[in-house]
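sorry for the late reply, my laptop died twice this morning and i had to redo everyting from scratch. anyway the thing you sent over, i finally got around to it. pasting the sequence first so we're on the same page, its 653 residues, then the predicted structure underneath. double check i copied it right bc i was rushing
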Amino acid sequence: MKRIFQQSANATIQLRHLFWLLAGLALVAAPHAQRLPWWLNLIALILLAWRVYLGLGERVLPQKWLLTLFVAGGLFGVYFTYRTIFGRDSGVALLVLFLSLKLLELHHQRDAIVLILLAYFLALTNFFYSQTLPTAGLMLAAALVNTASLVHFAAPARALRANLKTAGVLLAQAVPVMLILFFLFPRVQGPLWGLPQDAYSGVTGLSDSMSPGLISRLSQSDAIAFRVKFQKDAPPRPQLYWRGPVFWHFDGRTWRPGDFRPFGQLRFEASGNPYDYELTLEPHNHNWLFALELAAKIPPNASVTTDHMLISRTPVRNRVRYDMRSYTSFTTRGTDDADELRPGLQLPQGFNPRARRLAQEWAQSANTDAAIAQRALSYFGEHGFVYTLEPPLLGRDSVDEFLFDSKRGFCEHYASSFVFLLRAAGVPARVVTGYQGGDINPVDGYMIVRQSDAHAWAEVWLKGRGWVRFDPTAAASPVRLESGVAAAVPATDPLPLMARTTLIWLRELRYNWDALANKWNQLVLGYNPERQREFLTSFGMNEPSWENMALTLFWAVGGLLALLTAWLLRRIRTLDPVQRLWLRFCAKLGKKGSPRSAHEGPADFVARAAERYPLKADLIRAIGERYIALRYGERVEPRMLAELRALVREFSV
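ok and here's the structure:
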């Protein structure tokens, strides 16, 4: 048997086997193409084409020294691109590079098996970047193709359809074990293995600073920021302000947050009815959480700052779900303490002189701070400002250039200029960023808030009223609050395609897909330790510790494997007539003193039996030929089974 295995492992790769192998490798590597540097994609394609060219003509593979040069050059290229060979991105790049180079030393079936095992590992790395339903479906297809390749190399004479069927059966048999592991394997908070820091570098979301053009670029993304499920009716769209980072410090171009000062309670006076809802937040690699303005509840493992920001104890690197209560009608509470309000008056020296002069004129002519704020709002509504995703670039005095020259900008331009004007007039003000709006999916009832809903507004301190929201963008473009970004910006602005489409069937398709993706997120990706504890408790496991779960997992998998083994043995006995006829033939010879040895193959056994019983040699050989053809042949005809049955019935010693 060892000799036979070695011969099989050292068998050369046929061309049709090579194409099937390359198809499996392409499925697992293709999603990485958009993340890898262009030169590595080009090298991988060249190496793949080179290997196909060598296989077509059965040419000699490259020498070891040449492959060594390729490896050294690839290592240098990866290090030069990523400045390291460690981490998620550089590690995946090296794996794709080595997988491509391995094709050039693909001599025997053993090398092909190594490649397939590496392909399984590369398939896993796709989930480092995306855990969506399409990624899972594509990797399932890749697993099917690569498993069929393994079957193909184990039985090279079999037809492609038969190998695919066998691979499908193997994967189907693994599904029960997969489900048991999913439900019973002890969950830990966060990833099981610590991912390197670069694993979170590509996450989309609001930044920890704000400068001209930053939010307008984010608004061109169709990615989902979070989903909301209201217990009752949702607020009107103009009241959908989802509060996020608050910015205090301005250096002339960029706004940054103040010091995060946790506060033990929420300081505001609410009026009207509250809104209760569940919010599912996508990972954004920052500590802040989002809530409908203004939050009346602090989520678990979070705190609230003095400027009403909800702060998580750890960066949000996994999908987070929390229950919230908010009031859309409220009055913030606070004091007139000069030290507390001083950051709201900070301005850099020597910037935007024209805006300063305009604000000082308002301060001299207005009687109250509220009147100054209203003058600023009226200025945006009366001087021909344009709301656009493609504002012109601004120079050093960005506020002056926006207010008096270009008059074209997105929400960050309006909020930044408004707060600058108020501060220059001696009125405390700050910038608030987050999201405004959201669309309810009619399929599952969830409100979806996308990155294209990113927004910035202002808060002004008014004596006796506290911090009051002012939205200068709404003054310049009221339709932004009523109908969203797509209705407010010019038709030539680069919004996501789905944000503008008027095709009803396409919108319905999107709603159904979003609902399906939400189910996947809630039921599969959202199966966290708390959900697992609730699930196991419902089945009578009152204290589901990791020891109890591990023990239950052991017995469940063991019992399932025992049942599967018993079913396979029964299937061999009852469902395989070819094997049953062969065993009957072997039993007849065994009764006459010629039993088949455990290590003896059908060809050797038939040859030995024919020598011992020469009078029955032709019949014995005929039985052996038909059995081998039925058991191992590529084409099986129904008449051959009938012939084998008749020959075994005829045979006697």
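The first strand starts at residue 224 and ends at 230.
thats about all i looked at so far, will dig more tmrw
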